[in-house]
Amino acid sequence: MGRHQGQPPGHPGYADFVGELRAGLRAADAALFVVSASDGVDGTTRMAWDECAAVGMPRAIVVTHLEAARADFDEMTRVCAEAFGDDDPDAVLPLYLPLHGPEGPDGHAPVTGLTGLLSRKLFDYSTGEREESEPGREQLPPIEEARGRLIEGIIAESEDETLMDRYLGGEQVDVKTLIEDLERAVARGVFFPVLAAAPPPTAPARDSARSNCWN
């Protein structure tokens, strides 16, 4: 999608904006919605989302400005699920969680990288280079909670109707199957991944947004 300057309903430029948006959608294959952790979801973003939904366009969400002192990725994910999930908030879920460094004197813990939920890997960029590691024992509970919800969200949209019963019955679903089902659900416009971004060197948005880095 191209970048558009929104106009509120009733504004003289609103009809032109909607017309430009619809024309842009005809030329687009997918839409990436950028939502600021500082500003939240505005009316123009909701309207653009509804226009994309009307044509069944695949969509994903990137939460930015996570470096802000009061930024809360979990809260913004919840806000996005309420705004964009309609009756299914589990269709709007993160693929990654922000990885935070030590708290500074102001009590703010900066974002230093990402935690891959499907891969259970930490990607730390605090040195300016990507360093991959396993999570520590104290890091596992929130990762496993978010990972379980993500897996159930993906499986709920799977075209394999037996997969949820098998998963709930204790079967371990391999990551390759989850990624394939995730990609199909996104392409069908029924699942909307949430990605995280912050300024370099602490937020490699290129890793969380690349299509071959779902895991």
UniProtKB/TrEMBL annotation:
The keyword DNA damage does not apply. It holds the Pfam family GTP_EFTU. InterPro entries: P-loop_NTPase, T_Tr_GTP-bd_dom. Residues 12-84 form the Tr-type G domain. GO terms for molecular function: GTP binding; GTPase activity. GO terms for biological process: ribosome disassembly. Keywords: GTP-binding, Nucleotide-binding. The keyword Repeat does not apply. This is Tr-type G domain-containing protein. It comes from Streptomyces haneummycinicus. The lineage of its organism: Bacteria, Bacillati, Actinomycetota, Actinomycetes, Kitasatosporales.
